[in-house]
Amino acid sequence: MSSAPNVYDAEPIPAAARAEIDRLLSSGDLFRYTAPDNAPVTLLEQEFADLLGVKYALAVASCSAALFLSLKALALPRGSKVLIPAFTFAAVPSAVVHADCQPVLVEVGDNYRIDLVDFATKLTDDIGAVLISHMRGHTSDMDAILSLAKARGIPVIEDAAHSLGTRWHGRNIGTMGMIGCFSFQSYKLINAGEGGIMVTDDPELIARAVIMSGAYEHNWKKHPVLQDRFAHWQNKLPLYNTRMSNLAAAVIRPQLGELARRVHDGRANHDYVAGLLNGSPWLQVPDALPPEERAPDSIQFNLRGFGSNDQARAFQAAAKARGISVQVFGLSDDNARAFWNWQFLGDLPDLPQTRAMLMRACDVRLPARLTQAELDFIADAVIAAAHEVMDAPRAYGT
Ligand SMILES: *Cc1c(COP(=O)(O)O)cnc(C)c1O
Questions:
Q1: Rounded distance, CA 28 to CA 51, Å?
Q2: Of the four, 25, 82, 167, 377, which is 20 to 30 A from 233 by CA?
Q3: Tens digits of per-residue pLDDT, 306-357?
Q4: What number of H helices and E strands is found in the chain?
Q5: For helices 203-214 and 63-73, what crossing angle results, to 10°?
Q6: Cα distance between residue 51 and residue 205, in whole Å
Q7: 90 Cα: distance to centroid of ligand 1 (angstroms)
Q8: Strands 179-183 and 156-159
Q9: Please, is 379 exposed, middle or buried when counting C-beta atoms within 10 Å of its C-beta (0-12, 13-18, 19+)?
Q10: What distances in angstroms separate CA 353 from CA 10, 83, 110, 135, 349, one per listed residue?
Q11: What are residue 179's DSSP bridge partners?
Q12: What confidence score (pLDDT) does residue 209 get?
């Protein structure tokens, strides 16, 4: 293979979506609450709940909207503190701020998972909720997190935006906390351009979230959820109007059947490339935690023995010269996953462990559709780039 693979294009949307979209376009029935029943959004909610083995699902405009509604559904007092990992996407602390709460950042280790010592220290009685981002699909130790939170009676929300298909002790990620939230934005395992969904087994939480998502007047009657909770909350909650459109649901539903294949192929691709990269003394792909079965569509690895940021930048340039773009989370300007760029939070804490990780953690997309020759191309380029920098006489400073 002589030219670099395209890792950015998504898979085509299954052909079944076209007929349904045509039907919606000819009838103009795009709003989820127009039809008396069986709207595509309602069908998606039922299918998604069944797929994950949960009682209730609510489809909304984005995962960020789902996270915001989850916090609102918990009815936390204004200003409540919410623990989040310091390695996540800027939309996550933003959702916390949007919900009138205050994010408290927890250190993340060089395996991209929450540091449990810092978590236990910061999980004080004044914490209103824990919001765990399984960043890039890496699952933090849910056994420890759930038992520490349970001991204090603190609810856990899972940001499983990028974790659809991941399992923990055989259970679906996103179903272990009180609420789980997923994304259908284009870079996630199911692509609708935009979209999100929240899942829970708690009738009270789902009733509150459904109303606040914009089920105004008696539109909640179109949700197959315990109806007496709705009557209780009618007119008592704000309507934030962040619903999903029927068009998005029509794009998502035929992809649910593709999920198992994407998870299987994505994991095989990831593990193959991880094996090659781990053969280099300069690169390290952290192991999954033992209870975790991953569902990756990208690979993250650490640069080892790179003493300076200049060396890390030289590695990026050498990979780029071979046709492969490697993002080092902490080295690009204004990266939305680097906590020091979340200036909207005001004074930012010093989190040396997370900062050190971000300065050496690399990110390469690895979509499920890649062939073995394409995977070899990527791995060879990354390994050769690391050797070019690290085997050469030190010309990059110390
Ligand atoms: C993509 C992502 C989000 C945001 O999802 P949207 O649907 O774009 O709002 C939140 N958290 C994580 C971990 C993500 O990967």
A1: 29
A2: 82
A3: 999 999 999 999 999 999 999 999 999 999 999 999 999 999 999 999 999 9
A4: 13, 14
A5: 120
A6: 20
A7: 9
A8: parallel
A9: buried
A10: 34, 17, 8, 16, 12
A11: 157
A12: 97
What is the identity of the amino acid at 144?
Answer: A
Given ligand 1 and candidates 62, 89, 131, which is best to mutate, with the most ligand atoms within 8 Å of its CB?
A: 89
89 CB within 6 A, ligand 1: yes
What residue ranges of the chain have pLDDT lower than 50? none
The pLDDT of residue 392 is 74
Distance from the alpha carbon of residue 318 to the mean position of ligand 1, in angstroms: 30
pLDDT at 228: 82
**Candidate of 132, 162, 244 to mutate for ligand 1, largest count of ligand atoms within 8 Å of Cβ:** 162
136 burial type by CB count under 10 A (0-12 exposed, 13-18 middle, 19+ buried): buried
Burial class for 365, CB neighbours closer than 10 Å (0-12, 13-18, 19+): middle
Output the pLDDT for position 10: 85
Please report the pLDDT score of residue 395 as a whole number: 57
Q: What is the pLDDT of residue 93?
A: 98
Three-class HEC string of 355-379: HHHHHHEEEEECCCCCCHHHHHHHH
What is the model's pLDDT at position 2? 67
Q: What does pTM read for this prediction?
A: 0.96
Residue 255 CB–ligand 1 contact under 6 Å? no
Structure-token pair, residue 391: 């085997």
Q: Is 91 in the pocket of ligand 1 (CB under 6 A)?
A: yes
As a whole number, the mean pLDDT across the chain is 96
81-85 vs 283-284, strand pairing mode: unpaired
d(CA 182, ligand 1 centre) in Å? 8
285 and 274 Cβ atoms separated by less than 8 Å: yes
Query: How far, in Å, is the centroid of ligand 1 from the Cα of 91?
Result: 7
From residue 126, give the alpha-carbon distance in Å to each of 77, 79, 80, 133: 11, 11, 8, 20
- Can you read off the two tokens belonging to residue 121? 């220290």
Residue whose CA is at the smallest distance from ligand 1 atom 11: 161
β-strand partners of 157: 131, 179
